[in-house]
């Protein structure tokens, strides 16, 4: 990987890792649905402007249903679930749990696409279960109903990301990545648009909250997608997938430094176990 692509990789991981912190800041003030609605609508507008200037707008007329489904699976549902998880857990633990996405992708691909699960992948999946168990059982958070809801929400979000990845592989292999991203954001914006009106906060949010949600939408979503596309184009899909390993690390660091989130030995062991499981699942058996 060239130095410029390595820089893109770490910047992308930092942006996506910090998105959990911005959610942590905005959800208590704006609510889950209003935060996520603003995130996808503003990101869709920003990325559509880029697509307009670069002539990479998707063909919504003929593939609107596919984009709606992808927007539902890859944006609307998991974004909402992650916001619920962050509100009930903390940013770093939610990010670590969401890093299990490649594990769910492997399972969905085996069921849907009949992709074989070799020994390395099976060991990786089992190790991933162990990592989640360590993270849940050895967490610095006291066990309560909200915390349980947070765990479940984060893992279901990862499941939907896995379903979306396999669906996109089947439906959008012939698409340019920018077109797919814009199409799914437009689809999820239409789906979440009604939630914007029914979940308007009763009080005017602070300037810090407004800045956080704008940053979440424009920088951590729209701009991050562009970085991801450039990384895939220049370095390939496999090197770009290594961002999965870095996102929870950045989220853990940011959460500890900026939000003073608790980090104990169980969080570190759980993180390392899950990252090792992902490494086994996404690598090929020789």
Helix % is over 70%
List the secondary-structure elements in sequence, H or E: HHHHHHHHHHHH
Number of domains: 1
Distance between the termini: 22 Å
Oligomer: single chain
User: Helix tally?
Assistant: 12
Low-confidence stretches: none
Portion in strands: under 5%
Largest sheet: none
Outline type: globular
Mean pLDDT reading: 90
Overall description:
Helices cover 83% and strands 0% of the residues. The mean pLDDT is 90. It has one domain. The chain is mostly helical and 286 residues long. It has helices at residues 3-30, 32-54, 60-88, 91-98, 101-112, 119-137, 145-171, 177-198, 207-235, 237-241, 243-259, 265-282. Helix 1 packs antiparallel against helix 2, helix 3 (60-88) packs across helix 8 and helix 11 packs antiparallel against helix 12 (265-282). It contains 12 helices and no strands. The chain starts with a helix and ends with a helix. It is globular and about 45 Å long.
How does the SSE layout of this entry go?
Layout: H1 3-30, H2 32-54, H3 60-88, H4 91-98, H5 101-112, H6 119-137, H7 145-171, H8 177-198, H9 207-235, H10 237-241, H11 243-259, H12 265-282
What labels would you give this structure?
12 helices, single chain, 0% strand, 286 residues, mainly alpha
What's the short version?
Helix content is 83%, strand content 0%.
